[in-house]
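Fig. S4 source data, part A: sequence.
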Amino acid sequence: MSEDNRDFFELTPKEKRKYWKIHRYPLAAFYIVLQYFVNNPDKKYTGYEIIRVTELKSGTVYPMLVRMESNNWLKSEEEEVEPTDPHPSRPPRIYYSLSKGGKRRGRNTALERFQHDTSESSGDMVPVPA
């Protein structure tokens, strides 16, 4: 990054928009989502959380999560909706987390990709894993 080694998730909304304008290639979204999981490998996230933090569109995030799960990067589990829930008719939330294989491959893949990005660019707005 231009100022320091902040990662993507520490950027301001304006800096995130600048990053997406500069790095609009197909795998950029995958690496940003992967980095989000790698930063907290034991935490579970909903698709909405990922959309909110990355500012990606739902039409990008949800299909990507399904593909990442089918390729053994992620595992998912549905929440159990209690009958006493204030909104019992809503669909259950799906929580995603890194699978065992995803934890092994994820850290190395994210590091390799962001080192590659840094070496090929001026260094502006390139996320660096924490």
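Fig. S4 source data, part B ends here. The longest strand covers residues 74-78.
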